[in-house]
Design brief:
Rossmann fold; alpha/beta; six-stranded mixed beta sheet; 15 strands; six-stranded parallel beta sheet
């Protein structure tokens, strides 16, 4: 016995059995050992408080239960790979799922792909999850490793013992672009440290919604990036919004803007990608595209298990993303109304349609989706029109907010009302004749007599009620 540590040979000598017998009992290989001997060995192991080498036990088993997670030590992490919030969130989610599956997690960070097969072999791993490597690395690994492995966002053809799980990067860009467009932004800049793979997909998605969007390639190193922003500050100021391909770059960009006296979202709006934990607590809270780390981790463990059993038909899986709206983007209904009020000034007037045509009798055809037998119930129970609180129908967010705007007046027509603000608001909204909805005495008729203007935002003349009814 060395240094007070109980060894296998000590247990074997005391019981008069071979070291192989003791070792087999420890590792669960007891088919050829009598139940009595197994019991004696286990009892003495417990009495002597034998502590086995976990590595030895796992390496001796055909099923080690070890899942390796290997992350590319990319230069953009500047030596802090595991501190990156997306990486740490991914590893945390994988740790939970691997624990839930009764497995062990081992993590390795390396930028050398040829270390990965050695790592897998050394620990007799039953599967691996790889994050952040390029296509050529995956091809080499597929040739050298015979254990199943799952790749996060691998841009390649998947087959054999490999499954690629990616999120819909293109749709994430689409959602960001659509959201920014809905908030009135047209001059949008995308910032990324490269123009390939997932980052390019995100930019192309953005550009599909905003054709004039531009891509700016930024340095990976933080100090160089700050200097780059300063050098290109005047160019950056030309854009009303920035879409960063990661939350890290988004928050870093916002911090830079603060140093030069620019505010988000007052001066520039910013959207990120990932939805890391800090994005919600950041000031301002970051609007971002969420990718679900828990969902991907659960799927990764499930796919590894299916690969080991040989029944995994899906080799490329794409997961959805979701836009999370917070406080880093300016625009929307409030901004549109504020801009219009600023344009007309104190002497001007603004009028908008605030129709609630669902207040019409069902026989008029406004309840085409409901069965005819429901009409009596609808007639009896639909709330009476109240110009103070009755909401608009299909008029959009701007009109709905405008009817509630301080100082706004609304006409009394229960189905075809308008709301107006400013010098002539009362004249335009009073005495809205039920039988002259859009005629000479209606709000639209009065606006026509005043040589008023019609502003169309994002729609054509097919939506211009004033034009249709004055023809």
């Amino acid at each position: 016995m060395e240094s007070g540590r109980v060894r296998i040979v000590d247990i074997a000598d005391e019981l008069g059995v071979s070291t192989a017998t003791v070792s087999n009992v420890i590792h669960g290989k007891t088919k050829k050992i009598s139940a009595e001997t197994v019991k004696r060995v286990q009892q003495l192991l417990e009495e002597r408080r034998y502590i086995p080498s976990m590595a030895g036990i796992l390496l001796a088993q055909n099923d080690s239960k070890i899942i390796g997670v290997v992350i590319n030590d990319h230069e953009k992490y500047e030596g802090h790979t595991l501190e990156d919030q997306f990486i740490s969130a991914s590893v945390n989610a994988l740790a939970k799922e691997i624990e839930k599956a009764g497995k062990f997690l081992m993590v390795k960070v390396t930028d050398k792909w040829n270390e990965i097969p050695k790592f897998a072999s050394m620990w007799n791993m039953e599967g691996m999850v790889l994050i952040g490597y390029c296509e050529q690395d995956y091809k080499k690994l597929r040739e050298q490793m015979h254990i199943p492995f799952v790749v996060y966002d691998g841009y390649m053809e998947s087959y054999g013992n490999l499954v690629n799980i990616e999120v819909n990067h293109f749709d994430g860009g689409v959602q960001a672009g659509r959201y920014l467009k809905s908030r009135g932004h047209r001059a949008v800049l995308c910032i990324s440290d490269n123009n390939v793979c997932m980052d390019m997909e995100r930019f192309l998605g953005l550009k599909s919604e905003l054709p004039n969007a531009e891509l700016m390639l930024i340095p990976m190193e933080q100090e160089e990036r700050a200097a780059f922003y300063m050098e290109h500050l005047e160019e950056i100021k030309k854009y009303s919004a920035v879409f960063a391909v990661s939350d890290y770059y988004a928050m870093d960009f916002i911090q830079f803007l603060k140093t030069v006296g620019l505010s988000v979202p007052e001066n520039i709006s910013v959207v990120g990608f990932d939805n890391v934990r800090e994005s919600e607590k950041f000031v301002p809270a970051l609007t971002t595209i969420k990718q679900d780390n828990e969902q991907r981790a659960a799927l990764a463990v499930k796919m590894l298990n299916r690969l080991r059993k040989g029944d995994c038909g899906e080799k490329n899986v794409m997961l959805p993303v979701t836009l999370i709206e917070r406080g880093s983007v300016r625009g929307g209904a409030q901004s549109v109304i504020e801009a219009l009020l600023e344009c007309v000034g104190g002497e001007g007037t603004i009028m908008m349609p605030t129709q609630s045509w669902k207040n019409l009798d069902p026989a008029a055809g406004v309840y085409w989706q409901e069965p005819k037998e429901w009409w009596p119930v609808i007639r009896e129970y639909i709330p009476a029109y109240d110009k103070r609180i009755t909401p608009t129908n299909t008029m959009g967010a701007v009109s709905e907010m405008f009817r509630q705007w301080p100082g706004t007046l609304r006409s009394g027509h229960p189905a075809r009302s308008v709301a107006a603000w400013g010098r002539y608001a009362q004249y335009l909204t009073e005495n809205h004749d039920l039988s002259d909805i859009f005629g000479d005495s209606s709000p639209i008729g009065r606006l026509y007599k005043m040589d008023g203007y019609v502003l169309l935002i994002g729609v054509g003349y097919d939506k211009n009620t004033s034009f249709i009814w004055r023809m």
